Amino acid sequence: MSAVLRVCQGASPAEVLGAASAEAWMAFDAGVRNLDGRPWLPDRLREETPRPTAPPPAVALCHPDGRVREAALDTVRTAPELRPLLVVRCTDWVPPVRERARALLAELPGDALFPLAELILRLARRARGGFARALLENALRAGPATEVLALTAHPDRATYRCAYRVVVERGLLTPRELAATAASCGDVTLQDLCADAAVAAVIPGGAVGPDGAAVLDRLLTARAPRVRAAGVTALRRAGRHSDAEPFLADRSAVVRACARYVLRQDGVAPLPLYRALCTEPDAQPAAAAGLGECGDPTTDAGTLWALVEHPLPAVRRHAISGLRALDVVERERLTPLLDDPSPAVVRAVTQALLPGAAGIPESLLRERSAPGRPRAVRVAADRLQRAARLQRRPAPGYR
């Protein structure tokens, strides 16, 4: 039975929706308005139960008639379990209902808004949802640190992001804690927020603070590329330019780009370093990709083509990426690598061949789409065939 019907039959909102999600409260609001046999009780329930003189307060707060909703708002003063519906009414389309709900919400103590944070932020996406959000953010800025920090563990993404923004603004986490959060969380927004805040805290105005080394080392060893990139970029502000050199061959292109920037700021040219690294590619396979990102097509293409035949799959894959970056891809030389035993290499070859897929013999691709081929090869052939068909299709309006 739906939550609306249970409340209509006499159940309290605390029993039905006590710890429900924001979506459940919003669904309850919509469900009351969508009941058959308006204003609020379905026909079949009228037959089964005596009709009360007035709907329950929770139902009245969602009633299709704005006058009924407005009259029910004062019941929230003595029924805290109805506060989620008060938040919903703050976005009401009827101005008197909306203004009265907002006045009542503003009377609540700030920490009373914390349990409503998910619903407030969900409703903030509506055109009239900014009022409650502003109240919540002000409450977070003035509320007890322990309660604000507790919201950073909320399962709802918008809620924990909002809490973290205030935590950073108020300085409730140490630089080491910020760096640890950036390095361990999977949310890219938090990675950027916490990494930037950690760096700003330990290198204010260019001077390295007491926790600077520990914070930077934590960022530099993070699994997430954007966190490592933040750490590498911060090496310039810390005056540790040379420490960026090992990241020239990072597996992430953005980290490699940051490392090149830091070294150039110290007057060090990355290209000779890449050329030296590519003489021993087994130790730093991604150096081949870095060479393509800053190399000279005339001078360095030969090195990369030689590395395409390297026995180590990681070297072959990064060499192909380097050829793409140098814009020296030759379709006939790369097409045989569609049969490479490494799926990662096959994916890199596919990416390199996509712009010129129409020039690959169709019979070659059909052969590699056969059921007996490895999955990576079949997927690559299908992608290239689709790209080839699109490239051969005339542009709209072309005759």
Description:
There is one protein chain. By secondary structure, the chain is an all-alpha fold. The protein folds into 4 domains: 107 residues, no CATH class; 96 residues; 57 residues, no CATH class; 53 residues, no CATH class. The protein contains 25 helices and no strands. α11 runs antiparallel to α12 and α24 packs antiparallel against α25. The radius of gyration is 30 Å and the shape is flat. The protein starts with a helix and ends in a 7-residue tail after the last helix. 43% of the residues are buried. About 2% of the residues have low confidence.
Topology:
Blueprint: H1 3-8, H2 13-17, H3 22-33, H4 43-48, H5 57-60, H6 66-72, H7 83-89, H8 95-107, H9 117-123, H10 130-142, H11 145-151, H12 157-170, H13 175-184, H14 188-202, H15 212-220, H16 225-237, H17 253-265, H18 270-277, H19 287-294, H20 297-307, H21 313-326, H22 331-334, H23 343-353, H24 362-368, H25 375-392
Helix pairs in contact: 3-9, 6-8, 7-8, 9-10, 11-12, 12-14, 13-14, 13-15, 14-15, 14-16, 15-16, 16-17, 18-19, 19-21, 20-21, 21-23, 23-25, 24-25
